[in-house]
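User: My collaborator sent over this chain with a note saying "see what the structure looks like." That's all I know about it. Can you take a look?
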Amino acid sequence: MKVLIVGGAGVFGSRLAELLVRDGHEVTIAGRNLKSAEGLAQRLGCHALRFDRNGDLSGLGAFDVLVDAAGPFHAYGSDPYRLAKSALEAGAHYLDLSDNAEFCVSISQLDDFAKEKGLCAISGLSSVPALSSAAVRALVGSEIPRVIDSAILPGNRSPRGLSVMASILSQAGRPMKVWRGGAWTRANGWSGPKTYELLDGITRQGWQISVPDLTLFPAHFKAESVHFRAGLELGVMRYGLWAFALLRQIVPIPINRPVLHGFKFAADLLSPFGSGRGGMSVMVVVGEERRFWRLLAEDGDGPFIPAIAVRALLRREGLPFVAGPALEAITLDDAEAAMSDLKVRTERVNEPFVPLLSHVLKEDFEKLPEAIQATHKTADISRWKGRANVRRGDSLFARALALIFGFPPSADGTEVEVTKELTQGGETWHRNFGGRRFRSLLSATPEGVTESFGLFHFLLGLNVQGNELHYPILSGRLGPFPLPKWLLPISEARENVHEGRFHFDIKLSAPITRKLLVHYTGDLEPMKTQYGAK
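Assistant: Without extra context I'll predict from the sequence alone. Here is the result:
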């Protein structure tokens, strides 16, 4: 096929050009810098063309396919699909490597026009969402994932394109939406670090940024939670960008040419350090299992990965007649076949997903009714709602303790929301009783489960009695200092099933006086999810 690659002399465009030349396509490298395009074209044995996407587009009919590998796609102005529409009007398929969520999603507005022309306009034929969605589908099959967690983790010696840098910097410190536990939550760009494992025991840290996956995957895969992170190999660069993100939360620093080139200069100074090994990780939680697809690119072959989806798609006999994001535009088998001549290895690994209480209770956990088990199978965030009756002690001592711990006031029929969040240290339980909020952290220890309220830590004696879960307090600490038994509150806490619904009954008596501190009882049910609603 005759393929025009806009931005073909860039980091990813040049790799795509090399791959397509290997596959026998007639490739033309297009860009505003003709000298650069000609130099690469001479090396690869293809053609070069001076091209300005904002200029005359009348010559596009000479090509079968136009691929936009330029970007940054978030900065394409008031008519972002000018190039895509011009390609379709000229009779050429349009493909791009966009990683911008809005650009990728909104290209669907060209769907009727593409079908009329018998052509395609597919956005996001890159590591996200094309390769990531292919990996998710391969991991889940026809099942519905509870959690999707992906990351791209390049090596430091991989070249850095200005478009990618502009995309990441523009997000640093800016608000973004993340789908967690069946609801949209707020995060900031380049926040929430997490460590990922690649092949050969390599670990890398990733930070949250916005990509099309966060917008598209909740409705497409019906997932409860969707995460995406990107990483930088060197700590000085990761935490430097984090500091910049914090500063942008206070001062709206524009990502203009001087700022962008300043970061590029600093990154180039550090380019000799680190390695040329980069990777990608896609993890899903399905039922009681975690499933991973991992990729490791060696010897600087990482920048080829964003070009793989286009290569795989153009190996097919025909292209679809559609305009839309590149969700499952290729299969993972397609992608892995398109990597076979690169220094790239992949693996798929399955391991059990064991919730915190199941880990502690072991086989006793399975004796509990399903309604109780369900509340303790949080894979990322789970949300529950219901009503409760609250009684609080009226002594001065009880009121003071209730104030310290944030316990709600006495009331009947109080609306209750409980959110359980999986964290590195265990599970954080956020409770909201009619606007009164308090939280605790549950952690698994060699002794059992510890529930922490700030500096107070209480060891719970989890045990199953019949169809009920009981958790009395066995011991406690204030920071590192153990509390004597006479300073421990008395806990009469149980969970059971009442009229088919999860029911809780928590009664705490104050230490020393042994009088009522707080007693709350109620029912909970899972909160309903509206996929994709923003």
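A starting point for your reply to your collaborator: The chain has a mean pLDDT of 93.
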